[in-house]
Specification:
There is one protein chain. Strand 2 (about 10-20) and strand 3 form a beta hairpin. The chain has a four-stranded mixed beta sheet. Strands 1-2-3 form a three-stranded antiparallel beta sheet. The protein has a single domain (about 1-120), classed as Conserved hypothetical protein from pyrococcus furiosus pfu- 392566-001, ParB domain (Alpha-Beta Complex), CATH 3.90.1530. It has helices at about 25-35, 45, 60-65, 90-95, 115-120; strands spanning about 1-10, 10-20, 25, 40-45, 75-80, 80-85, 100-110. Helix content is about 30%, strand content about 35%. By secondary structure, the protein is α+β, with helices and mostly antiparallel strands.
C-alpha cells in the first residue's frame, strides 16, 4: 500500500491509498464509509506502535504543531488484531505533545467495509 497526498499550498488537501494492483481509496471515501460510527476513547499508548514517526526536522513535525484536535476523529482499521491508523497521525502526535493520554477515535474492522478496503489496507 502506498499513501499519497495531493499538495496545494502548505498542507495536503487530498489523501489517497493505492494498492499494488492500482486500486485507490480516497480519504473522502473512507470518511463516507465510517460517517455513522460513534467515536470512543482509546489510550494513546496503544496506538504508538502504528504511528508514523517522521525524521527530526521533517516538515511533518511543523504540521503536528499546527494541527487542531477538534478535527474529525481518527479512523483505525483493525486487521486480525493489528491496527492501521488510516487518518490522524498528526493529531495523535499533537495529543501526545500536549500531554493527553487518551484520544477519541472511530474504529472499524476491515470485514465491515467494502472488499476493496481489504485489497488496499489488508495485512
Amino acid at each position: 500500500m502506498k499513501q499519497s497526498h495531493t499538495q496545494q499550498q502548505q498542507f495536503p488537501t487530498s489523501t489517497e491509498w493505492i494498492a499494488l494492483d492500482g486500486t485507490v481509496i480516497t480519504l473522502s471515501q473512507l470518511l463516507l464509509h465510517t460517517s455513522t460510527l460513534l467515536p470512543h476513547t482509546v489510550s494513546i499508548h496503544t496506538l504508538e506502535s502504528a504511528l508514523i514517526n517522521w525524521p527530526q526536522g521533517s516538515r511533518e513535525w511543523q504540521r503536528v504543531a499546527e494541527v487542531g484536535l477538534a478535527q474529525p476523529p481518527i479512523i483505525l482499521v483493525h486487521t486480525t488484531g493489528a491496527i492501521t491508523i488510516a487518518d490522524g497521525h498528526h493529531r495523535i502526535h499533537r495529543a501526545r505533545q500536549l500531554g493527553h493520554t487518551i484520544i477519541a477515535v472511530k474504529s472499524i474492522t476491515l470485514s465491515e467495509l467494502p472488499a476493496v478496503y481489504t485489497r488496499v489496507f489488508g495485512c
